[in-house]
């Protein structure tokens, strides 16, 4: 018996020695620098083996894959009718892409595509990560963190990179971020596991606070993942309120407070939004969640970051820049209903700040300065007035010394909210088919004078502008475009001046790109043009002509919201730029050129009308018996009227490239008085 016991013991020891090395079976991920993140994605069923049985940790991650990883890690479920033309239902990640788009985590290109199979760069990932941070309500501040190659990061993306770095989600190497470098599946997994650690996902937490995967290359996630910090902040996934987010409210999630002398007082706590809502009895009361106002009786809304607003008004998604003021309509526990220049839609609480009028420290405003309309902008990050621009003559109702406010740049009120007047800036609402009266020689002379002016400011970016600017000598090209394509030469010049910093931007100098083509808030593409002439032709032939001017568009997405630079209410600005004042700023360039050259266009102006109905046909003759040339799908479209009404019809310039005459029923067009 004793011998048998000894033999059994020896067999046990030998068995343990033989088995111990296989406790954790080695695979291609064992010891990988991003092992923790990769195994996290596997646990979420986000990462699967390919046909060869590999997880491909060092392969470039695609846009579709990264969207899928985020969707599964965040357990996104709510969906909407957002679709991309190159993501069919049969695409492997189609459902996840739709869920991520519905949550506002991803957006597509201007032509309605998503390009799911394209490799994603590190800066693109940073933007999506920032949106995920907002969606998950992870606390963040305004970060000043920069990398040695910060200048290589697209300007609009630097905030996203800085915030990600501050939260230690994003890591660089030797002080460099390498923004344009394509990210690998392994790197993507590390970004996501760090994100979900901060969100409090227990599957992402470091075991016992240790770094079981040798994760120095994972950015020191051992202590930053925050077995302590991650769980303490874990409640932030739900707003951080379950465990006493509001002072003196115990376990309450919401509080009702009152506005008194511009501050919030009181702290009546409630466990649900609905209960707090029932307790509000006065217009001076607001509902607060984690010191953030989530419901008020009146005020305005400011975007915290770039957002995609799905407009119910025109059934389209609009890009909107950070720091944009909108009308507040209503809100519930999950979203805020807003109106931007007449476009009604919904945004998540994480994307916006609600400001009651009585708590406002400053707002963007308009004023009459020596007969010109000046727009002064307010920066809500610094709580200071940041910049201003002049874009035309002031309307007659504007008195000097008074401030005026407008949601759309058309209808203006005073400080009390009383209506003061309606004004259409001529250059902002002048249809693109207009022709400028200036010659190529006059345009060239103006360009050189303007370049000398900006060069004289001493600003380093304008050094040697009169020698290096890509605008030099473009007069003939612009007039040729006007003749061939029927697009105003001065309008194209104004657009180029604004988008290229007078031909001196890096994109203009290095890529011959005067118009920011293929550069959006989420998907920059550094396409190089052989010449600025090629760049102008591409603007006209692939953007303005087919999609922004011709009604209906040609890409399946209707970008033609009026053939004017306009605003977020109508015109190119609805879809072309996220800056809601982009159209007004373009108009300002046109106005300053006019001012320098003697107002030839303003002294012999076009008559402009606005359509008043949807489904309005523009016909080849002045009767319903003539065939429609095209149809305006929406109302409020600007048209140039070239002759007085005949038999109830106006002759107009066609928004569709067409050399014949076009007519529209007088009953559905209202002539407007423009300020010029």
Brief summary:
With 676 residues, the protein is of the alpha+beta class.
What does it look like?
The chain is α+β, with helices and mostly antiparallel strands. It folds into five domains: 203 residues, no CATH class; 106 residues, Roll (SH3 type barrels), CATH 2.30.30; 58 residues, no CATH class; 158 residues, Lysozyme (Orthogonal Bundle); 69 residues, SH3 type barrels. The strands form eight sheets. It has a five-stranded antiparallel beta sheet, with no helix packed on it. Helix 2 crosses helix 7. The radius of gyration is 29 Å and the shape is globular. The N and C termini lie far apart (111 Å).
Write the SSE topology:
Blueprint: H1 2-19, H2 35-43, H3 63-74, H4 94-102, H5 122-135, H6 158-166, H7 185-198, H8 221-224, H9 229-232, E1 254-260, E2 263-270, H10 273-279, E3 285-289, E4 292-295, E5 300-303, E6 307-311, E7 316-320, E8 325-331, E9 335-340, E10 343-348, E11 352-355, E12 365-369, E13 372-379, E14 384-393, E15 411-413, E16 419-422, E17 424-425, H11 440-455, H12 465-468, H13 475-485, H14 489-500, H15 506-511, H16 532-549, H17 582-597, H18 600-603, E18 607-611, E19 616-619, E20 628-632, E21 638-646, E22 649-652, E23 662-665, E24 669-671, E25 674-675
Parallel strand pairs: 17-25
Antiparallel strand pairs: 1-2, 1-3, 3-4, 5-8, 5-11, 6-7, 8-9, 9-10, 12-13, 13-14, 15-16, 18-21, 18-24, 19-20, 21-22, 22-23
